[in-house]
Amino acid sequence: MNHKTRLLGSVCLALSVAGPAYAQNTAIESVTTTARKQEETILDVPVAVSVVDNTAIERYGSTNLAQIGDLIPQVQITRQSSGNGGTIAIRGISSAATDPGIESAVSINVDGVQVSRGYIASAAFFDLEQVEVLKGPQALFFGKNSPAGVISLRSKGPGDEWEGFVKGGFEFRADERFIEAGIGGPINDVLGIRLAVRASKMDGWLHNTSGPIANPWEPEFPFPGATNNKRTPAAETLVGRFTAVLTPNDRFKATLKILGSQYKDNELTGGQQVVSCREGAAHPTTTAGTITAVDIYDDCKPDKYRSSGALPAGIAQNYPLTKNGEYFTDTKTVLGSLDLEYDFGSFSINSVTGYYHLDTSGLGNYAMTTQVHFPGVNGEKTTTWSEELRLNSQFDGPVNFVIGGYYENNERESFTVGRGGFGPRVPVDPNVDFIIGYWPNDLAKRETWSGFGQILWDITDALELAGGVRYTRETLNAVNVNIYANPAFTALRPTGDPLLIDLKEDNWSPEATLSWRFTPGQSVYAAYRTGYKSGGVSQTAILLRHPLNTAESLSFAAETAEGGEIGYKALLLDGMLRLDMNAYYYEFKGLQRSSLDIATTSFRTLNAASAVSKGFEAEAFFQATDDLNFRASFTYNVANFSDWSNAPCFNGQTAAEGCVGVGGSTTSRTQDLSGTPLALAPRIAGSLGFSYDTPIADWLNIGFTGDVKYVSAYWAQDIKAPGSRQKGYAKLNASVRLHNPEDTWELALIGRNLTNEMAILSATDKPGGSRNDLLGTLERGRELVLQAQYRF
Q1: Torsion-angle region of residue 262: left (phi > 0), alpha (psi -120 to 50) or beta?
Q2: pLDDT, mean over the chain
């Protein structure tokens, strides 16, 4: 029996003996969801949905999407340093984060506004009322781009009485300091407001071991090692939200929410490191031309140490879009929503106007070694306006309906400033005052129109049939151009020569659900669902001349999903036990996958044939007494490529390992990955937890929480370089709290990832690397937080 199995068994034993005997009159509070864009209890809605309420979010101080996603099995959210800015996966279905031209397969819905860009993972989310994770395709009610699911966040409103809080704390491992505050309540009988702010600063949880070393390619520019990035990510966050709710009468309600966030740190790639090297090698390598350099400062292990050298002074000077070549990240986000509701009696109409603006840029070391041969500025500016109108009938009869329309206008500009990829040296161009290789700039304008409708038929008081469809039409106009191309690199598209690409797509996404509440507190359902995600244009970091890059080679088609699920939901034992179980089977066609072109060190997206995701999920919540509750979840998920016969090879893959030339070519080589698992798709994941809170004096309560999460082995990279295999692991979170009975003050010690599992969350081939040299983003290691809070 290994130590992780013993740990899981010990937690199960502790849960079985903790606390007093069960109280028969203790009931679970009702949980509501807006999975169908209306308030329903989680027991009634025929959707596979996990609800994380404010209590669960507060339990471990979760203030970003990665921490929130960690509360739910088979959900993974990881901030990335380039591309679309983040990886978001549900049941193993995700989109690669390495290409700015690709949208996420999991949509994030914030106060009614849909966001399909991974950069939303950089924003801080706090003062939340509830988070809902809707699993599987959600095309009907959630705009677009949600074939894998939707994560919906709802922030707190002003409430009926004035109340507020102040919270501060310190995390000891990363030397992180934070403070939050919020206040809200009614201005008068018709207007309420809420204002909440959060600020944090940390020194970083990764330590940079890089030291000075000679530059074998450009000896006049020796590598200095770590300078301003000795600990990463040294980050600062400032975020605020303003909410106003206007209710002039009992028929009309208007809600305005504006979220502003800024995130800064000291290296764009500061959360990544080399996690694997060539078999038998102690250090990673970087090759350019005929010269290979070894980074003696890196240990090739996923741990708290990384090696990332700063830019040499002669190259850093005048590096475009930076301050003398110092590494940085600067991400600004504004997200606003205006929700208008009017109740006519037999009908209600709802309008949600959304605005999302992102402005991000940063400089990082994409070789992730002391030898900085692949530095790069990456950035994006995105502005999205959206409008959804929805009409709901509210008849007393058995038949009701929902109809609506959705419009979205998105404009995105992505850019890269890089040096590596075309040889041992970057020649000096006398016409400019910087020494770079390329500066592509990509502009994409997308317009989306869609209409949707659903009919709900109460066949009997217990039996409901719902059927609907969404039609979507999209147009995309893209312009890819090199603002600068070093004339010595003849494979690059010439400076100022634009590549114009136009796409048009449409899609029908139907769904149908039959649900049966066969006895009070219990129901079953069966659903057929489909999903759709937009195609697009690959925004490569290196734009090549015709015919190496063409409109056809850079375009990729839409991704679709089709399948179904059956579920059982119940409230048992006089309301003490809540169960939610479902089994599902979904086929995905045209999966969009991005991989590294070793020849150009640039990522490009293609449609990777098809895949199947199937499995079983179960969640349980047991309120044993007023003071004690237990929770558990289990998922068994099989997510495999059903057909991917032309997958890219990993760097250094041999013919004996399945990498073969296409049509006799020695440069165009592929492998057959049909039948193999998708990345980020562990076969088994589950959790066990408890919360216990009890008085120890008339004026003092003590509370304990503990949760162990287990994840079985999975691949962190689709193309499956050997080093991208992550072993199964167990992670323990726990906390202890002291507070008064009225909950006006609280002192807490919170532990996250106490088992210190630094698992690989995503991996890519290292630019310039040898066989099995991989870069990875890791699970953050052990965290210990001391936190104080005062509520008023």
Answers
A1: beta
A2: 92
Give the per-residue pLDDT at 503.
95
- The DSSP bridge partners found for residue 446 are 410, 476
How many C-beta atoms lie closer than 10 Å to residue 76's C-beta?
Answer: 27
β-partners of residue 694 are 702
CA distances from 279 to 273, 369, 684, 770, 771 (A): 18, 18, 28, 10, 8
Tokens of 61: 């101080």
The encoded tokens of residue 396 equal 């007393």
Pairing relation of β-strands 106-110 and 149-155? parallel
Residue 410 has pLDDT above 90, yes or no: yes
Instruction: Find all residues with CB under 8 Å of 788, minimum gap 6, and list them.
Output: 167, 168, 169, 745, 746, 747, 748
Which residues, at least 6 apart from 284, have a Cβ–Cβ distance to it below 8 Å? 274, 277, 294, 295, 298, 300, 368, 369, 766, 769, 770, 773
CB of 450 within 8 A of CB of 471?
yes
Q: How many C-beta neighbours within 10 Å does residue 559 have?
A: 28
Report residue 344 as tokens.
Answer: 């006519």
Task: Quick: pLDDT tens for 745-788.
Answer: 999 999 999 999 999 999 999 989 999 999 999 999 999 999 99
- Phi/psi for 59 (5° steps) reads -50, -40
E-assigned strand segments in 136-175: 149-155, 163-171
Mapping DSSP to helix (H, G, I), strand (E, B) and coil, where does residue 722 land?
helix
Looking at the chain, how many residues does it have? 792
d(CA 335, CA 388): 16
- The fourth-level CATH superfamily of domain 3-15+42-791 is TonB-dependent receptor, beta-barrel domain (2.40.170.20)
Measured over the CA atoms of residue 425, residue 429, residue 433 and residue 436, the dihedral's sign is negative
